[in-house]
Structure formats: structure tokens, C-alpha cells
Specification:
Blueprint: H1 5-12, H2 19-31, H3 37-45, H4 50-77, H5 82-93, H6 100-116, H7 123-137, E1 141-142, H8 155-161, E2 163-164, H9 166-179, E3 184-187, E4 194-198, E5 215-220, E6 225-227, H10 229-238, H11 253-265, H12 274-288
Length: about 290
Amino acid sequence: MVENKEITALLHLIDDPDEEVYGPVSDKIISFGKAIIPNLEHLWENTPSEDIQERIESLIHKLHFRDLTEDFRHWKEGSCELLQGALLTAQYHYPEMQATQALQELEKMRRNIWLELNSYLTPLEQINVVTSILYNYYKQKGVEIAYTQPEDFLINKTLETKKGNAISNGIVYLILCELLDIPVKAINIPRQFILAYFDPNYERMPHSEHPSEKIKFYIDPLNGQIYSHKDVENYFKRISVPPTPSYFKELSSKRVIQYLLEELSKCFDDDRNRYKMNELILLSNMLGE
């Protein structure tokens, strides 16, 4: 714990009922950064008042969120790696999370898939290997998106519980394909989170073509099911939306994480948690700036 007279005096003022006093006090406490969290936790443990405990919890959350915002800013300006973005998103809900377990699990999956791959496999055979290892061997389960279940959106819990929705399962699938140099990307089909296997030579193909012509087939990350172009055409007819080219362009890692943050924010659309919804939307908007 950080100990000095100023911190001691500030902590004594946390219970001040006057918001005009408490406002500057809380700002000053937050200015000390995460180093002051042990002091706040110690105070929480020795405070009988639930109202004061709530204030302390709010201060700790603000300190974590300030650091997370900075981490996202560095991520946006740096590598924009999908795995790192997904781990940062999980840290919003689990600020003390250690990434080691998730990284070890992904490495085990990657290795098991890699052992089954070879250069003679067709694209469909490659994807059948990935799908079989992920959903049959590791028993990864897909669940429908439920905004009452924020953990289903988070990569650490998805890997730990072997259960995720289309977005979190899809991010795991994308990360594995990225690690194995398999050209699978997320695309922007409305009301779905769908992956597409792009022709490995698609970057050299003429840009005048419809982007869907660069796609060999589609993958549902909920369960690994393969869809053909005809299946996707029928889907667009069913929802009465014209299949414009923008729907078939690959989404960047940054856009995937933006989408994850936007969807996760919907889990907190109630009076008690709306500040979380607003913070997650703030992070998503920051990535789009």
C-alpha cells in the first residue's frame, strides 16, 4: 500500500456526504492511479457502511477503467492484434484477469490443429480439421446471443467454460486461423457474425469483381457449419436485404473488437449498470476515431 499523509487525509473524506467535497476528493484519489487500489481495498474491508463500500467500489472501477482506456488506445495505435483486443475486452469485466490460462488453451488448440494439417489439404478439408478439433475434440459449444449473459462474450470465459456465442466462438476461430495462416476472416453480413474462407490469391484478384467472388465458402462460428454461396443468397432473400458488396468485405480486427464491445454493452442496459453500457460504447467509439 502507498502510505502518506495526503492519501490518509483523502481516504478519511470518502464518507463526506457533501458531493461538492466528495467530487474533488474522488478526482484526487483517482489521480494517484492503480497504486492506491490496495489502500482502497483495505478501507473497504474495514468499513461497515454499504454506502461507503459502494463509493470505494466505484473508485476502484474508475481506476481500472482509466488504465483500460489507455491500453485500448495503445492497442488501436499499435498492432491491433485480435487476441490482444479480445483479452482487453475481457479485462473490462475481470480487471485482475491473468491471460496465461487463455493463452495456454489457445496454444494447445493451435498445436492439435497444426498436427492434423498438411499442404495437400483442400480449403474445405483444412476447415474440417479446425472445426473437428474445436467443436468435437475440445467440445466447444455454441449458444445463442443472450444479453443477460455477459460472460458468453468474453474470451477467457469462452475458453474456460467451453461455451460461447457466435461472436466469442468466432473470435477464437479467427485467432486459431490467424495463427495457422488459414485465410478465414469475419464479414459484415447483417444480423449475423459469420466467417468466410477467402481465396488465398484474393488480394491479386481484380478489385472490380464483387467481393463475394473472392470467398470460397462461409463458416458459422456457433457450431462450425459450412454454408455455400447459395445458402447466403437465400438468407438475403429471406431477410429482404439486397446483398451489396460491403457485406462481403472482410472486417478488420479493430472492427471485430468494436462490434464485440458494442454487443457486450447491451448486457448492461438497466438503471444500475447503464454506466457500464456507456463506458463500453465509449471504448468502441474511441476505436473508430
